[in-house]
Amino acid sequence: MKSATSNVVHTARIVFGALSPSFVRATVTEEFLIGKKLFTNETLKSALQKLEKELVVVENPPEPSVEYRRKTALGLFYKGLLQLAPANVVDGRYRSGAINLHDSRPVSRAVQTFETNQTIWPVNQPIMQVDALLKTSGEAFFVDDLPKYLNEVFCALALSTVAVGDIVSIDASKALEYPGVIAFYTAKDIPGINSFILPLNFVFISSEEVFSSGSIQYYNQPIGVIVAETRAIAERAAKLVQATYKNIKDPVVDIKEAKDNPERTTLFAELNATDEGENVEEVIKGSNTIYGQYHFSTETLTTVIKPSEHGLDVYTSTHWTEGIQIMIAKALKMDQNRIDVHTRRVGGSFGIKLTRIIQGSIAAALVVTKLNRPCRFIQSLTTNMRALGKRLPCHSEFETGVDRSGKIQYLTLASYEDHGSIVNEQFNLLGLGVYNNAYDKSRWNFRTFSSTTDTASNTWARAPGTLENIAMAEFLMEQISCEMELDPLDVRLANLDSQYARDLKEMIDSIIIKSDYKNRRDMVTKFNIENRWKKRGLRFSFLRWTPIGGLNLYVNLSVYRGDGSVIITHGAAEMGQGINTKAVQVAAYILNIPIEKIKIKENNTVIAPNCNLSGGSVVNQNVIVGVRRACEQLLVRLQPVRDQMENPTWEELIIEAYNNNVDLKTHGFTKMTEEYTHTAYGVTLAEVEIDVLTGELEILRVDLCEDAGLSVSPEIDVGQVEGAFIMGMGYWTCENLVYSKTGELLTDRTWNYNVPLARDIPQDWRVYFRKNSFSEELIFGSKCIGEPPICMAVVIALAIREAIVSARLESGIPTKQWFREDGPYTVERSCLLTSTKTADFKFN
Amino acid sequence: MDRVTFKVNGVEYSVGCEVSSNVMLLDYIRGWLELKGTKYMCRQAGCGACVVSVRKQGALPYSINSCMTPITACHGLDITTIEEVGNRRKGYHPLQTTLAKYNGSQCGYCSPGWIMAMYSLLQNQKDMTMLDLEQSLASNICRCTGYRSILDAFKTFA
């Protein structure tokens, strides 16, 4: 806009993008502004009215709603004028509207604080991952790095194009005519059981079809597999497979629609209160719904299979080799001992490569047995997102009576886990131990239901069953404090379970001091009074986590007589969590040899049969115990030889033992029934700022205290905490799955499914490990670390809520009035929830 | 011009009618040259796992997403992949040792892409501040680390 010193507009250009293909220039508003004094409330008001009238915004899912884009277009116009306006024109409270939030972001800073006991190094020693250099140099092996095999073929899944119905016929003729296409296989081609999962242990209760045998249960369910000479041809041809359907029905994709339908919802468990208080000051009712999250492992689901002498050599990025082996055996009617499954490492999983990868592996194995050619099956990101299950959405409803301090007198709480098309993996079970988080559950009546919707069968996703329960407990505390007009920290403390109180209070007190909480609490309140267009929030979340279950693992340790070097296989999968590094640290400590002397080899079903899935955070503890047992067994065998020698070096001891016919291969076994009971705690305080005009978010500071026990590898555990927290932050802020009415997932790629990026993390991020924490000797005092921290990320949503509430107050909505929000606090939702009126856009 | 010629890690290659127009630089690097250090995920230039460094004659190097660059569009380019930056034979590059030391690599799958993005950046821009550097790292996704360790590692090069 051009104006003379009198601030009268000479010419104007107002341009918008992302509203609609037909609307770019706001010409009516431009014309209106010419000759007007620009920086008066009157001009602004009229211009906004003109602009609002001429904006053409059309729905374009999964892009944000018309309402949001309209609102933001007006907000940006106002923001632009605030930026152009002379400082003396703009009232102090409105100046924050001129700032582009992300431009104000400084260099991020971070501190990690933990103690390390040098007397037990290399256990508890902060070191980098043992294979870190292989990874940063690209030398680390991933499945698709296997060299090209002569004659190899590629696959792509053909997917259904209805959500609910029955297949009448499948016509692959167009696909088969496509040059380079070799074959198309469906359920009929599977000689054995058409399922990629069975009730193999207590977690699983159903089977799930590899390819639909007729009934379609969600949009983009696999109906067959195309085989072609190249990956690109396979993917193109898979889209040419046409099926016809009958009995097509509209899908139910939202748990809220499914929860009250008895055909879709069954009671999983009921845990009743043992006490009821009498001081009911107020009755509070509420409900919350949260939705799915795609795992977004950077390596997609990948399997390479080649024919072997006995049957199949399977290379796959799974963390359950046994599951792959058993299910291929059952699908193809082969003995398990004809199928060797290898996993060197997994390029990220977060749960998707536990059971969902078995489906594609069976498809690839079918192709290999049909054609007797090697098969490389790299699933595309869009297929992974569309065809596979995700984090379980969850709906909860409660009614509670609380006393004046917000302490619960009675509570009825029901939660509905959305399993997708079938109830199989029983995550309700994992929630039973944590539904009350750290709060006193004696007055809680808790019921948890399993529900189905017409979406892909939902699956393991970092902290399944626990994240949603812990989030519900934290939302409950927030709503009580909101409606009772109490400090949310006080409400949490009033409801704390006495058995966790001592541990948690120690951590809370520590965070309060380290974060300068009291001072910052006042500053946030002051900031919100002084600023109309930027709002801040400061909130706590608590965490109490108790792991359940143990795992079958077969740990093997071999020592080589030539130089005393050691190899270990531990039956679990390295997927970035640093399990190989921890195994090496434990072994080096027990054997008293340098960590460089020990190498961890690939996991495979030959050396490690029948190993349980590397799921849940407990795999760390199991590997530690298994390695410990194998090492201790070796030391026992070496002792008689050692007693005959005088201070031998490790190398001298080993060769002497060899010469004395000592068995230098040992074994460690861990059992499912063996639980390493401990409780992990966490406290997080987060401060956020939102731009009221756009809904944009900056996380100003996070102080996170994690109880990692005595960490076997502190640097690695810090990485687990940070990674989990950011994945959770994505879940609560930017990762939004959008489905069409037909049940089709519209957000299926990096362009429209937004995961956090480097400059989305807290500007100031401090991670502390709790001091002097120790679980039990057998596991070196360590605690679960991979999943618990993600459960604290709900703090970001809670802090955003405070910022939104402050903005709503400006629009006349009392702070006491709880607002319900389902799903992530995206920029769109945050902006709309502020309920800002355009009439409030002013200069002074 | 009957052949498209380019260099990968200093070695000259050429392609002609034997490659289809949908063969991307990524496919060529991994499939033809069997250089498997360059990774990929989304194949739509969104994740950064496939970043390599390229240089036109007389110009400064810059990063590209090899997944969306047709090999037939690489004429005259001098392409550097992670294998050339550093390896166990000739020694690792300070970027590689620093990212490792800071635990900026967990599952490791996105790491080569980050190294290549920084490798190009350091040659392309002189005297970068930490802020410049952070602002330049929006093209790579890491799902494991939460980015803090990666930023800390790379900021030592500011």
From TrEMBL, chain A:
Aldehyde oxidase/xanthine dehydrogenase a/b hammerhead domain location:
137-249
Q: From the UniProt record, which GO molecular function terms apply?
A: 2 iron, 2 sulfur cluster binding; iron ion binding; oxidoreductase activity
**Keyword annotations from UniProtKB, A to Z:** 2Fe-2S, Iron, Iron-sulfur, Metal-binding, Molybdenum, Oxidoreductase
The protein's required cofactor(s) are namely: FAD; [2Fe-2S] cluster; Mo-molybdopterin
Q: Which domain of life is it from?
A: Eukaryota
Pfam families, per the entry: Ald_Xan_dh_C, CO_deh_flav_C, MoCoBD_1, MoCoBD_2
Coiled-coil segments on the chain, per record = none
Family the entry assigns: Belongs to the xanthine dehydrogenase family.
Q: Which PANTHER family match?
A: ALDEHYDE OXIDASE 1-RELATED, XANTHINE DEHYDROGENASE
Name of this chain's protein: Xanthine dehydrogenase/oxidase-like
Native organism taxonomy: Eukaryota, Metazoa, Ecdysozoa, Arthropoda, Hexapoda
Gene name of the record: LOC113503921
TrEMBL record, chain B:
Signal sequence residues: none
Family matches, as CDD domains: fer2
Keyword Nuclease assigned to the entry: answer is no
The superkingdom of the source organism is Eukaryota
Native source organism of the sequence = Trichoplusia ni (Cabbage looper)
Pfam families named in the record: Fer2, Fer2_2
Listed name of the protein: Aldehyde oxidase 1-like
Q: Which residues form the 2Fe-2S ferredoxin-type domain?
A: 2-85
Q: Which UniProt keywords apply?
A: 2Fe-2S, Iron, Iron-sulfur, Metal-binding, Oxidoreductase
Molecular-function GO term, any one: iron ion binding
Record's InterPro entries? 2Fe-2S-bd, 2Fe-2S-bd_dom_sf, 2Fe-2S_ferredoxin-like_sf, 2Fe-2S_ferredoxin-type, 2Fe2S_fd_BS, Ald_Oxase/xanthine_DH-like, Beta-grasp_dom_sf
